[in-house]
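G., the chain you wanted modeled:
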Amino acid sequence: MSRRSLSVKVRKIDGKKTLVLVNKLQLSDRQLEIKRIGDFIFIPFARIPSELELEELKRAASEARVSTCIFREKAERATTLAELLDRKLSPQLLSSLPRSADIVGNIAVVEIPPELQAFEDLVGEAILTLNKNVRTVLAKAGAVSGTYRLRELGIIAGEKCTVTVHKEYGCRYYVDLSRAYFSPRLSTEHHRVASLVREGETVLDMFAGVGPFAIQIARTVRNVKVYAADANPNAIEFLKKNVRLNRVENKVIPIMGDAKEVVKEKLHGMADRVIMNLPESAKEFICAACEALKQAGGIVHFYGFVKAPDSLENMQSGFADAVDQCGRKAEKILFSRLVRATAPYEWQYVLDAQVA
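Predicted structure as tokens:
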């Protein structure tokens, strides 16, 4: 569609400063495209300019002239998946579209409901269109499971790649989503825990993955030692790369192995603070965390899952009982909250506990 509009005609060399001024004066008709003819550009007006406004335009560009011209109307850009796929999917399918995607570096990870799986390539291409920085779209093909906390992922659009560099609070992480666990939804937790660590502390990250807790802590605290353990050799490979990438070689010590064995063999009674981000089975490692703490005690950041109608209060009591059974005492729950929804009526939670 096109329509005629009053406009200002200026030479291209004066175009940028004239456009800035037209916008400042609130003269610009943003529904029309700017027109270029030869060495001139035409900027459409939304209203008739005053004499004072015309004088200001001529001061900015001496050859500025008011002109009438035919302009094309701007096409409306879709801002949601539903808008983009409105004419390609039925109303029933549009209502099933995913509401969000996890963005890790230049990779989007999305959950496709069963009724949309026949159209997953269409959904993937739409996600690429809406997110200009995304180069690959992965679809979840199962739940996080196994010792290494991995899930099946299928490439549904873009480049055939699962490796990227993710940026978070000033840190950078090499990640291979097919070989090591990583969740951008925990970025606030990484930052929160790092902000609590004090100068001179020794920290044990029992399930470090590619290092988002450990490296954030090392970048935040000047004098700190972080032992970062993981049973997944691929995660440790990327953790070592990330330690070098973020220049924290003297602060973060990667250790491959089961956390229980690592504590027993190397880290008994050494830690001021222990991070336990393995919500599926962290309860099985509470005694190991207690053994890792110094004799005087310390802080434990414990992550788990809670399902309705259960409550955070029950999780706190359960954690305290487990600590008692390990021969120590949970003196105080310093902080607790629901971190994120993981399924209908299920959440990941965190407890910060002072353990004596």
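The mean pLDDT is 93.

Shout if anything looks off.
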